[in-house]
# Entry
Amino acid sequence: MHKEILEDIGERELINRLAKFMPKNQIKDDCALIQTKNNNLLINNDSMVENVHFNDIIICPKDLGWKSVVSNISDLLSSGSKKTIGITVSLILPAETEWIWVEELYKGINKALKEYGGIILGGDCSIGNEKIISITAFGIQGEIELRRYACKPGETILTTGIHGLSKLGFLIQNKTSLNENISLKKRLVRKSIEHFCRPKIYPYFLKNLIKTRSNKKIKRIGCTDSSDGLFQAVQDLAIASECKAIMNYAKIPKHKDWPKGDKWDEYYFFGGEDYELVFSLPKKWAKNLCKLDKNISEIGYFAKGEPAIEFKDNDKNKLLKNKPFRHF
Amino acid sequence: MHKEILEDIGERELINRLAKFMPKNQIKDDCALIQTKNNNLLINNDSMVENVHFNDIIICPKDLGWKSVVSNISDLLSSGSKKTIGITVSLILPAETEWIWVEELYKGINKALKEYGGIILGGDCSIGNEKIISITAFGIQGEIELRRYACKPGETILTTGIHGLSKLGFLIQNKTSLNENISLKKRLVRKSIEHFCRPKIYPYFLKNLIKTRSNKKIKRIGCTDSSDGLFQAVQDLAIASECKAIMNYAKIPKHKDWPKGDKWDEYYFFGGEDYELVFSLPKKWAKNLCKLDKNISEIGYFAKGEPAIEFKDNDKNKLLKNKPFRHF
# Structure
């Protein structure tokens, strides 16, 4: 008899199956939520596993500490957190780990907390065969709830920043042969490594959203982050909100030195770990926000229809045949 | 040059070193704390690592799920949690893990939550080389704060339940030769396996404490749980509270079939994973509580002096020379 293993199931289907054990389907959104009388608390846990998400060759411990915090705060922001309270840090480390590695990791953790707010609330450390940094971050829900399921047909799809850079940074750090006869511009190389090792987030995103809101009655908008790639983010929004995403390839913001070609499109749409916010807004609000924040671009719109992604530019639809980003 | 690795440092010293990275020294108590206007939130994270805390031979996935929840709620209770809100579950699993294993794990998790309260608030799953179950549990701080640092000279030291059983259960499940010419009673074997695989906790502990309190002005008492062994628990209290523990060997509650001998004393005091509560109370309160709850025993008292443990019975002090319970 064939025994069904996780590799057969895949990451996304696993998440769907785990959801049935939970009274609230919060595993499908970016954060869990605890309701209290005054504030709702947003909670997010992300684990970084050695040889899955990192190794000592591609990222130094200080950058890893920074990135572990940022990946968690990014999820809080993508749910509409107005303030990061703090984090707990759970480490699994092999007994032969050098103390200096731990010290550097914590320096990176505290550097990110100093930059984006929050303190270390507690933690523990166990022994194991591979390094694992598991961080739980706590934030306070702000005035607008950002949820995957809140996109609506007719709304503009937007994204912060530029995608694909983190993937390119990973490939460069990993000394993967890019197998091309092109030489990458130095500033693209530098920017990509920076995106992979020291990703940044948008702490003013919620404030700018509130500032540009055209209709104060809107308390909830559709949003997620692109930690698993831009396509996955748009697809997650489409599925959770039950509508169709129409993307406009010509409007996708790229780094000015980003090469052309199918492989580069694949890195762009499926790369992952960019920690950009992907969201949708009513047209007027979208226009106002793009005017205020030059880091934000319109990349398409939602329409009525079965949850799916389509390109406005027909010849780009072949891109959708690529497999989504997955760790297993 | 010799590079300092974690094995040289040891678990306890590592915790001390990590504490310096944290603005609040909460790593030294059982839980982290988030203060909100109405309620204070207690947070605890515990990770179970394959081949450190468990393997598939000594515990089945359903029991492992139960135990992972219980070990977390035990820490909440030992800080004075009056209600478990819920947990987040972060899994690291090898790609070849069978789905049925995951399903059974979640059944055990939900069984424990049904028994002791709380829901699954969220979670995630990543791929890794060994199984890791990392649970973060959230509770509401009750009327009495239980803290490691709050023991006072003159107070009686008490414990719930019986120690050593979980260690014996582990040895039996692991088929470790006990190297003795004695045969263990069947009911001791059964009870020990139960303690190791399906440990219980004391959800009414805080209520009983409040019910028997002789002086309503006392809002804080010294407490921890014995997840790292009874000696470690008493030592943690003595160090955090800066007083000396005098233990009364004759009063230590043992299972009636527990064999005599130095090795059995070692299992008893250093075994770990018993999840009993170890705490101190003013004499009168201690008497009242023992009368109300027959699971609770007086085992000594705190005195002024350097943080240390001593036995009232002089010939038992040799026990203290044993190394404390540690995973590395």
Q: What stands out?
A: The CA atoms of residues 80 and 287 of chain B lie 20 Å apart. Chain B has two domains: 17-141, 145-321. Chain B touches chain A through 71 residues (CB under 8 Å).
